[in-house]
Amino acid sequence: MTTGSAAAKPLRIAMISYYLPSGSKIGVGYQVHELATALAARGHHVDVISDCPPVEGARYGHIDLSSSGRLRTFRFARRMRDLDLSSYDVLHAHGDDYWLWRRRVPVHVRTVHGSCFEEALRIGGVKERLRMGLLGLSEVLASVVADRTVVVSPRTRRWLPWVKTVIPNGVDAARFAPDPSARAADPTVLFVGTWENRKRGRLLAEAFQEHVLPTLPQARLEMVCRDAPSDPGPGVRVLGTLTDEELAAAYRRAWVFCLPSAYEGFGIPYAEAMASGLPVVATPNVGARYVTDEGAAGALVEPDALGPELLALLTDEARRDRLAAAGLARAREFDLSAVVDSYVALYTPAVAAPSAARVRR
User: Fold this and answer.
1) pLDDT digits (tens, 9 = 90+) for 69-118
2) Residue 340: closest CA among 154, 90, 55, 54
3) Closest alpha carbon to 254 in 189, 191, 173, 316
4) DSSP structure class, residue 277
5) How many C-beta atoms lie closer than 10 Å to residue 39's C-beta?
6) Nearest Cα to 151, choosing from 113, 102, 188, 202?
């Protein structure tokens, strides 16, 4: 079989993802859902193996590998060894494949969505640091087990220097697109993340209330957030969980997007906001630095400067427009269609010539 004929043939793809949007707020699950949906739309057969329940209306198949109790992610990885994957052309893992060292499909691709070692440096609690350290070791092992390993941002290669392939996370440009007519009448900041832990929603709310509201009392902070308190304080509106369409509308409605995360391997909301024509404010974490091109396409500020930076942007339309234009141009590099093209280009030559797939790059 030639490479060309392999490229034309629909592939049978098994994806591993502990997370899916149906059961988790983790960004990896959303990206897996988008990739699987886009691949299925191109005629490939895709099954996602997950601990989470099926996503309602999904165009791809679902294999339930759910469990309960402690150490679920590690037990999920161990149970993967019992599955018969011989009917698939491709195994594309987004985690939990580190026990799969024996060849089971023509090509085994692993995407590393960030570094657990990097996150361990910034997380609180001894137990959580230990857990992240163990997961970091699993990422190293997985990069050896897989035929081809991919990272979603260049800085992740700090922990996996032998991995050469960078394919960013993708954003659906048809869904996340600018619409100036939908912009809110009052100054609006949008946040997508969690109130606690590394996303630092609480930090943003406090900065907004201290620095923005005294000057712009009509301003509001909208938070797509599941764990915010019932009364987060003045000017803050908690949106909870949104559908895809509601999230896209929230981006179009806002004036500025802000996610002051302590760590992101990539940071899909940054790319979604930029594709929607929003200026982005972020703290200089690994993902934000990459997505904003080291601040050329977004504002990178330290946590204590968040409030003043938001106020400055909300009161300077010309600067908002410049940042939005730079972000929109940068977002084209994260178009989901191009990301899917890159993965199919990885899959098909190896399916055509499985022995060549063992050359790890």
Assistant:
1) 888 888 999 999 999 999 999 999 999 999 998 777 999 999 999 998 88
2) 90
3) 189
4) T
5) 24
6) 113
CB burial string 46-71: b at 16+ within 10 A, e below: bbbbbbbebbeebebbbeebeeeeee
Mean pLDDT for 212-216 is 98
Residue at 157: amino acid letter: R
Where are the strands (E) in the chain, listed by range? 12-16, 45-50, 61-64, 90-93, 107-112, 148-151, 165-166, 188-192, 220-224, 236-238, 256-259, 280-282, 299-300
Structure tokens at 65: 């590998």
Query: pLDDT by residue (tens digit) across 229-279?
Result: 989 999 999 999 899 999 999 999 999 999 999 999 999 999 999 999 999
Return the residue matching tokens 């992740």: 156
pTM of the model: 0.90
Cβ atoms of residues 275 and 269 within 8 Å: no
Where does 174-227 show beta strands of DSSP type E? 188-192, 220-224
Pairing of strands 61-64, 45-50: parallel
CA 122 to centroid of chain Cα atoms? 18
**The tokens 């309602």 sit on which residue?**
56
How far apart, in whole angstroms, are the C-alpha atoms of residue 30 and residue 207? Answer: 28
- Over the stretch 278-295, which tens digit does the pLDDT of each residue have? 999 999 999 999 999 999
Q: Residues 245, 4: contact at Cβ < 8 Å? A: no
Residue 80 in contact with residue 64, Cβ under 8 Å? no
In contact, 322 and 298? CB cutoff 8 Å: no
Q: Does an H or E element contain 6, and which? A: helix 3-8
> What is the rounded CA–CA span in Å between residue 103 and residue 213?
58
- The sign of the dihedral angle between the CA atoms of 185, 189, 194, 195 is negative
Most distant CA pair in the chain, distance: 68
Q: Which two tokens stand for residue 233?
A: 């304080």
Between 71 and 31, residue with greater pLDDT: 31
Of 238, 246, 243, 199, give the one whose Cα is nearest residue 221: 238
Q: What CA–CA distance (Å, rounded) separates 275 from 331? A: 5
